[in-house]
Amino acid sequence: MVNRLLLVVAFAGFVSSANAQSDGAGALIWLFPFLAYPIMVGFGLLSVSLRSERHHLEFKRVVQDGSKSFYVGLGLLAVLILIGIALIMVSEQIKGQGGNSGLPALFGLATWFGALSIVLMGWGAVATAIGEGMARAFGRSDASTGALVLLGSIVPALIGGVPVIGWALMAYWLCLAAGAWWGGRSNPIPAKTND
């Protein structure tokens, strides 16, 4: 039931973004699915292919303990974003006093880039979880992980540009991705045995 509801919401998001106004914001909302999908799929597949064992731990974290992953990701992203804002503000203060403000601004931007990198490295687990639910809704529970990432990136790309509800869901999924990445890092990978 929930999976079918997600499909309806995704279709409604695509239709509403296609009917957006032709001004700058409306065009950006309309273009969001086309810009976001390749980025989400690319980083999701990169995360899955380069870190398959870690991806499995992150995926289990998302599926079994999603609320904890969300709150950990929310806290992690909030701290990184606030540090970035503080460093940019320090840079502006130094600039206002006539000093060289490049270094704090650079560190602020690097902090934001770090937050984005964390989200993108955890995105594979979230896309796999969404894709698994969509595959079950279509009766295809035997899909490969790569296909699940492709399928699971469609819904966020379609509804992420919809004002308010789409943005809220996208923020939820991004926090979930950051929390999954952190949870995958804090859980040790079991040692391989040569049995």
Structural commentary:
The protein has helices spanning 2-18, 24-50, 52-64, 66-96, 102-137, 145-152, 154-159, 165-186. With 195 residues, the chain is mostly helical. Helices cover 82% and strands 0% of the residues. It is elongated and about 65 Å long.
Keywords:
single chain, 195 residues, mainly alpha, 8 helices, 0% strand, disordered N terminus
Which structural class should the secondary elements be placed in? Answer: mainly alpha
Q: Helix proportion of residues, in percent?
A: over 70%
Number of beta-strand segments: 0
Largest sheet: none
**Overall 3D shape:** elongated
The parts where pLDDT drops under 50 for at least 5 residues are: 1-22
- Give the helix tally: 8
Computed over alpha carbons, the radius of gyration is 19 Å
| Straight-line N-to-C gap | 43 Å
Summarize model confidence as the mean pLDDT: 74
Sketch the topology as an H/E string, one letter per element. Answer: HHHHHHHH
Indicate the proportion of strand residues.
under 5%
